[in-house]
């Protein structure tokens, strides 16, 4: 029997490391120069590889940019928000809100979002995938948790998808826009906790079950 053709593990690791090296260099160039200003030559220099090597991995600038967005989506999916339906609503909202804003406003995180926003009109499929896999996925997970708690009469929410979006937007208040437009540095954990606590109180004031 002929043995299956397998690429040696060390070559697979080297290939993955080279790809990550290219993506890191390309991310910096896209951040500094924008999509239009970035060239494959500039990206190759920033990544420390030849243009020939760069083209082995990515056919053109569009494919490279899509790979960066895909990597950002994978990184964000690794964040494990705790939406256990057995947990109480206030604790779950507070912990999720803090983790969500820390992820959204992490140092360097705004660059990926700004780049996707800037190119979404020209490459709508990329923008749509980013929204569906990152933002909409998180909204859906929070909405499913709220639906579970509504069935237990812990909250009175007629439209959980809308309520999930509302809570996430309240958590962003005064934090996300200044950060994304580079008018302010990433917010401190203390400031994030203050804003999320306010958002949680407002959310429960509107949707929490009233005694009596």
Automatic annotation (TrEMBL):
PROSITE patterns: HTH_TETR_1 (PS01081), HTH_TETR_2 (PS50977). SUPFAM superfamilies: Homeodomain-like, Tetracyclin repressor-like, C-terminal domain. It comes from the Bacteria. Residues 39-58 bind DNA. The keyword Protein biosynthesis does not apply. InterPro entries: DNA-bd_HTH_TetR-type_CS, Homeodomain-like_sf, HTH-type_TetR-like_transc_reg, HTH_TetR, Tet_transcr_reg_TetR-rel_C_sf, TetR_C_Proteobacteria. Keywords: DNA-binding, Transcription, Transcription regulation. The keyword DNA-binding applies. This is Transcriptional regulator, TetR family. One of its GO terms (molecular function) is DNA-binding transcription factor activity. Residues 16-76 form the HTH tetR-type domain.
